[in-house]
Amino acid sequence: MFRFVLIRFGRAFVTIIAVMTFAFVVLRLSGDPAAVIMGPDAPIEAVNAFRAAWGLDQPVWVQYVAYIQAIFTGDFGVSMRGQSPALDLVVERIPATLELTLPALLLQLAIGIPAGIYAALHRDSAIDRGVILGAVMGFTIPSFVMGLVLVLVFAVTLGWLPSGGDATWQHAILPVIAMSVGGIGILARFSRSAMIEVMGQPYIRTASAKGVTWGSVVRGHALPNAAVPIVTIVGFMVGSLLAGAVVVETIFSWPGIGRLLIVSVTNRDLAVVQCILLLVAAVMVVSNLVVDLLYGWLDPRLRGHAAH
Amino acid sequence: MSRSHLVQIRDLSVAFDGVPVLHGIDLDVAPGEAVGLVGESGCGKSVTWLAALGLLPAKARVSGQVRLGAVDLVGAQRATLEGVRGAKVAMIFQDPSSALNPVIRAGRQITEALGIHRGLKGKAARREAVRLMELVGIPDPARRFDLYPHEFSGGQCQRLMIAMALAGEPDLLVADEPTTALDATIQAQILDLLATLREEMGMAVVFISHDLGAVAQVCERICVMYAGRIVESGPVGRVFDAPRHPYTRGLFDALPSLTGPRTRLSPIPGTVPDPRALPQGCAFAPRCARAVAVCSLQRPRLEPDADGRALACFDPVPADARTPAEAQHPAARASAAVRAVDEAAPPFMPGPHGAGPAGSGPDRGRWQEAAQ
Questions:
Q1: How many C-beta neighbours within 10 Å does residue A46 have?
Q2: What does the pLDDT look like over B206-235, one tens digit per residue?
Q3: d(CA A34, CA A54)
Q4: Which of A84, A134, B266, B277 lies 20 to 30 A from A123 at CA?
Q5: From the list B53, B90, B93, which residue is nearest A202 (CB)?
Q6: Is the CB of B103 less than 8 angstroms away from the CB of A299?
């Protein structure tokens, strides 16, 4: 078990380094922050002075080494715009993003999984067909379309809810819905197929044959087995929620990390963008790590195969 | 008559998506009796008992009667079925490794049944489960109680299944090809175990198999099924001595003879008919060497015979027809064969599981899968 955990941690660390490197290189190659920040009319001396001040005149690998060294001392750089530490800017926005992503995640789990399981247990019923239809619609409609439609219907036409901003909790309703619909669809679909698969296994028949009541077969024998594929998908969804936040926060003018990312990319504010990407990578890696550890807990057969 | 029967099946029929796969089975099991159900894959052996216990998927349409005492199980309420399963009738399955829940500790799967049927909880349940594990021959059961099914071998998983089935102290144990997925030597041990337990606990056993040798070892009565019908039934001794239905006869002829001169096996020509396109008359007629004109027009009924068997054939094999290879009881024939093999001491007998009768000891009749 210790070896299992150790290998997973090692892999997580390597993944984060890889993401940081990738983000660093791509950002350096995709445009000159000095030109953007100083504006097109800035004198060449000023631009060069800016480059020198931020170390942008150094070769990329020198910048990279400096960047990595700084990271390990806890220095995530300074925003080229506001001169405040990038980390502070990002951390400041985290609560706003959590206000959307956490309720969205809870909604996905609370609706998607039960809907999928119910559909699986009542296969080919009207409700099952309804769940499949809803699920397909849910995950095929892109969140920006969903967001715009929600604004059009509930804010513009009906006038029930605000269309943007973060003043009250009502402001969060539409973005949370826009963010969770896709995940609900995916989870419902996955839970359904996982449960159908498990309910067809010989051990379910064994449990029934020994007199276990149907409810206990579902709860005690089927669900623990269906949990493995469901947990896998939930792990992926935690990461995609952050990606979804970029789109949804922009549509609903929600002052979270997603909007900060868009603004910082537009401004070529390298330190902030890198800091956000690092955070996103860390969240993805941690959620996958948690999923891996949960596997071992959920399925005793996987405990012995930690090394693979 | 009906009072003396534990289970009485009448005209049991099953259809999947409108395709009938079981065409009116009549079968009685007396208390303490051991009945063998033999036939090729897909002939309805397992379906009969899965249907009886309501374990078929919802799309299966089941009709007829399965009487257990005063209760008819066909179309019974879920609660009625749950009260019967495990308590009156327990069932064990082919491929024990996948029949046990992979994420639940082996011992817990037994105590679960003990809790349901005997109200045992906690320490008492654990003690009883360990006793059952010991009874079915699992070494060091107290320690292995907490292991998961994948930490047991296939044979031990089948022993766990049997322990689980015994937990409810059932009147009838339905063993659905319990040895098919196991090595030959392990098969023999499991068969021994089933025979011993049956003797000790006085429960009836229905043994579903396509292994004639295993049936001979465990059962008193045999029902041969073909394409969803019983085509011949009777006491094991009589049916094995003189199989009268051409299909039964074909099953025996398809067994390799280990004593006589080396001859080609005579398999039954053709394949099992598609249940969607059964022949109009006898389902076996297209493969039958003895078929006469009437066979393809009319379906023979299962009629009782003077010597205690029932037979569905217009032109059965004469009762006294023997070939030298069948001059003795098949069990004796096989053990003679095994003895011959032991004396010749070949290092390896190829068979469906990589090891043949050589591994199963001198006293035991073992066949390879007769009907493949």
A1: 12
A2: 999 988 888 888 899 999 999 999 999 999
A3: 9
A4: B277
A5: B93
A6: yes
